[in-house]
Design goal:
flat, 44% strand, ten-stranded parallel beta sheet, 1 helix, mainly beta, 163 residues, BacA/B
């Protein structure tokens, strides 16, 4: 008697869950339809249009692309998602491309984070006969006494005074 039937597959539109159980180790590239839960080890590329959850004993290493990622275990590599949540005890060491990042106390993020939709900066040189508008910030620099910079101390120590 089994709980899985041979001739029945997941129906389209229904969220299937792919589980990498504790003690299992996979390497390679996966494109998954539905959610992914990792309690074991996965090394490689994994992509889903849904969510990825990394359990406390789970480890993901490689390139990860998902809608939402929730980490209680460890993630290393490159992570591209709409939102990332690092729970207590979770560790992420990655180049992160996401719009929303939340970290619980005792969660850890080390790496670089950039927004997914970074607009490209373009340089437009001024036209030849264009007149620049006045810039109050630039104009106020003319009134500063730059000789005072040399009189500043090399080191400043901040501390509390007890009354």
């Amino acid at each position: 008697m089994g709980i899985l039937k041979r001739d029945v597959s997941a129906k389209p539109g229904r969220n299937a869950v792919t589980i990498i159980a504790q003690g299992n180790s996979l390497k390679g590239s996966m494109q998954v339809s539905g959610k992914v839960h990792v309690d074991g080890l996965f090394e490689g590329d994994i992509e889903t249009a849904d969510d990825i959850t990394v359990g406390r004993k789970g480890e993901l290493r490689g390139r990860i692309k998902a809608r939402h990622v929730n980490v209680s275990g460890c993630v290393e590599g490159e992570l591209n998602c709409d939102s990332l949540h690092i729970e207590r005890g979770g560790r992420v060491q990655a180049r992160l491309y996401c719009d929303a990042l939340t970290i619980d106390p005792r969660g850890c993020f080390m790496g670089e984070r950039r927004a997914r939709e970074m607009p490209l900066l373009e340089y437009h040189p001024p036209e030849e006969n264009a007149v620049e508008p006045p810039d109050p910030a630039r104009d106020s620099l003319q009134d500063l006494d730059f000789s005072l910079i040399g009189s500043l101390p090399d080191r400043i120590t901040l501390g509390r005074q007890e009354d």
